[in-house]
Design a protein that fits this description.
718 residues; Rossmann fold; Immunoglobulin-like; 6 domains; 6-stranded mixed β-sheet; 39 strands; elongated
């Protein structure tokens, strides 16, 4: 009985001792395996080969580049493992050998991958070399001046002689490549083209080539400027010439306007304004019917980068019929037309309104059409009411009297009526003929006294207009305002001076033969000027770009050989926000930041089998970070992304890469004298101690059960 109890206590003590030892996890040292991973990629293999004789013979070896394979000894050489570096493949091959210790021998020019085991590393320097790549433009257009990126990379400073050949002729440079250097080779893409580059130096020779095929042609609508149309066609634009706006401008990259606002259908200014604000490109040229003479400075005052300079003011008095027959739509449309006159006037112009019905009434005398003057005129016009008869004489005399006090040379009267004039006609006709003031008339509807109004315009030296319906009035008012409030053009020889801008760089501009004196708006950028007069200015409105050229191309630049390239570059710049996408790639560490400029719907980058959305970063701007080349998806478009991704020879601090890789895994960066040949494989005794403790526990429980049975008393018999 005593022996059983003492045995139980002993077993219980042994169980506790086994558990304590298992918690402390003692280990038994056994012989292990050292695996060396040898970098046989192009940048490191020569240094590794030179080191081979100094590597331990008793270890196991795996050679790797794009692929990995075991080798019998460190002096074995494999050149069939590819031209890149895949560290993951090396790790997988090493795991098959069940290593106790792993040493990576490399130049560190690789994508670091977290190792699945503690890793030591030995740094070897990369060999001198210059890698050469050509990066083509993303979406080259026919006629566009394109830039091919020439990317040179060297892990160590190396001298190189670079020669690039292509449509722009040979480019030759001797340079020191230290890290990454990028040059551009530019030329106009008028057909499919090939660019080849060669770099030579102490390492030997590197070559690269790329072929460019035009992806598309920019689409331009040219309204009334045949000279511009020919220049754009010579630059590869798909040009449509017309005097009408299509129902939709959405498919156009550029609209060039060389006609007047009244030469286009009603609503054209609003359509062009919307097109510009939504990202379209607009170019206004000074043909005899375009720009200022065409009234665009008045029709689009907020969107034209040029305004007339030094224009002489004119004065116009509108003599408006407000008799009872004008009530309703007629008066409403007459007021709308008068408002067009107000808007079309410049600050140096004077406008007044005299009303006539049964008696004359001055709505407002001729006043300068400043912003304040326009607001007051609009308010008074919107307050008009109709009623009474149709007596013109008194109102006509008031208009002449008011004009006598206006300090401008050109003075005019515009008479509008829809009925029979009650006055004797001859006194009014005689007054118009002798006043020295230009008199125009407008007959509204079938009941108007057209014969009298036509004779009044003839005697007054003006123009006669006939409007069948009230809806025609606004455009007729605008036409008359354009006749009265017009500017002047100059002819002669005007020297053209280019201001610093990428679009003017490299061009020698000839003198101009025709010039509309102009100034630039504060929001516009001046590209060309002639003394104090601006010739060409451009700017951004909404999401689009607009430019205005104050000279007639058919006369000024007819004999200038570089006119087509300059105008083509200007047109492509204006169209840039709608047509081709512009790609900018910025290497950032192991990734490339891709910035895409252009009109995109729901852009995605397809790379590495994944769809990565592009994030909007501003108007017409999207960004994405990529680690490999892929495809840009946008609607039906699939555009290849050729990116300057880090390659085999991308400059890195290889020693720092290896140190971070080793220390992050629990290893360290070794020197040549610290390379191990053998390793110990510590065997953990914890599972064995736990098993022994369990066995002793079960034995203790068995002894305790037996001891309990022996001490139980027997029941008494009968």
């Amino acid at each position: 009985m005593v022996r059983s109890v003492s045995g139980i206590h002993l077993l219980r003590a042994l169980v506790l001792l086994g558990l304590l030892l298992a918690f402390l996890d003692p280990r038994l040292s056994l012989p292990g395996r050292v695996v060396y991973l040898l970098d046989f990629s192009p940048s490191a293999r020569e240094s590794v080969f030179a080191l081979a004789e100094n590597l331990p013979r008793g270890a196991s070896y795996v050679a790797f580049a794009e692929r990995a394979a075991p080798i019998a000894s460190p002096t074995a050489r494999r050149l069939d493992l590819g031209e890149g570096t895949d560290l993951r493949a090396a790790f997988q091959e090493a795991l098959k050998l069940r290593p106790s210790r792993v040493v990576l021998v490399s130049d560190g020019l690789l994508d670091p991958v977290p190792p699945p085991f503690p890793l030591d590393a030995l740094y070897v320097p990369p060999r001198p070399y210059v890698d050469l790549r050509l990066v083509p433009p993303l979406y080259p257009l026919l006629g566009e001046t394109v830039a091919v990126g020439v990317v040179l990379e060297a892990p160590r400073p190396t001298e190189a002689l670079l020669r690039v050949e292509g449509p722009a002729g040979p480019l030759e440079k001797r340079l020191l490549v230290e890290g990454r250097r990028v040059l551009t080779y530019t030329f106009p893409l008028v057909e499919s083209a090939e660019v080849r580059a060669v770099a030579e130096g102490p390492w030997g020779r590197s070559e690269a080539g790329v072929r460019l095929n035009p992806a598309d042609r920019a689409r331009a609508l040219v309204l009334g400027d045949p000279a511009l149309a020919r220049y754009l066609e010579a630059q590869g634009f798909a040009v449509e010439e017309s005097l009408q706006l299509p129902p939709s401008l959405e498919q156009l990259d550029l609209v060039a306007v060389g006609v007047g606002v009244l030469d286009l259908p009603q609503g054209a200014p609003e359509a062009l304004r919307d097109y510009l604000r939504q990202g379209g490109g607009l170019l206004f040229t000074a043909t005899p019917k375009g720009l200022f003479f065409g009234g665009w400075d008045r029709a689009l005052p907020e969107d034209l980068p040029l305004k007339p300079l030094g224009r002489k003011g004119a004065a116009l008095v509108l003599v408006l019929d407000v008799s009872g027959s004008m009530e309703g739509e007629k008066l409403a449309m007459a007021v709308t037309g008068a408002l067009e006159l107000v808007r079309s006037a410049a600050p140096e112009d004077y406008l007044g309104v005299v009303l006539f019905s049964s008696a004359p009434r001055i709505l407002f005398p001729p006043r300068p059409m400043t912003e304040q003057g326009k607001r007051e005129a609009e308010s008074l016009l919107l307050s008009l009411r109709a009623g009474g008869g149709t007596v013109l004489g008194g109102a006509f005399q008031e208009a002449l009297r008011l004009l006598q006090e206006v300090p401008v040379e050109r003075k005019a009267i515009l008479v509008l009526s829809d009925g029979i004039i009650f006055d004797p006609p001859e006194p009014i006709l005689t007054l118009a003929e002798t006043s020295g003031v230009e008199v125009s008339t407008l007959a509204l509807g079938a009941d108007a006294d057209a014969s009298f109004l036509e004779e009044l315009a003839r005697r007054g030296g003006g123009r006669f207009y006939q409007a069948a319906t009230a809806g025609e009035l606004p455009r007729l008012f605008l036409r008359e305002g354009q006749e009265i409030f017009q500017g002047e053009g100059l002819e002669g020889r005007f020297p053209a001076e280019a201001l610093p801008h990428p679009l003017t760089q490299g061009f020698a501009f000839p003198s101009l033969r025709v010039l509309l004196p102009a100034r630039a708006e504060p929001w516009a950028e001046v590209l060309l000027q002639s003394e104090e007069r601006v010739v060409l200015a451009l700017g951004e409105r909404g999401e689009g770009r607009v430019a205005a050229l104050a000279t007639d191309l058919s006369r000024s630049w007819r004999d200038w050989e570089e006119a087509a390239p300059f105008l083509g570059g200007l047109a492509r710049y204006l169209a840039g926000t709608r047509q081709a996408l512009a790609l900018h790639a910025y290497p950032q560490g192991e990734e490339v930041r891709v910035v895409v400029l252009g009109r995109l719907e729901a852009p995605l980058a397809l790379a590495g089998g994944k769809e990565i959305p592009l994030l909007p970063t501003g108007p017409l701007s999207h960004e994405v970070f990529l680690r490999e080349e892929g495809v840009l998806l946008d609607g039906k478009r699939r555009l290849p992304l050729a990116l300057p991704l880090p390659g085999e020879w991308s400059p890195r601090d290889g020693e720092a890469v290896l140190r971070a890789l080793a220390e992050g895994s629990g290893g360290r960066l070794l020197s040549l004298g610290e390379l191990p040949e053998r390793a110990s494989a510590p065997l953990s005794l914890r599972p064995y101690l736990l098993a022994l403790a369990l066995l002793l526990f079960l034995l203790e429980r068995l002894l305790e059960a037996r001891a309990h049975g022996a001490t139980t008393p027997r029941p008494l018999g009968g």
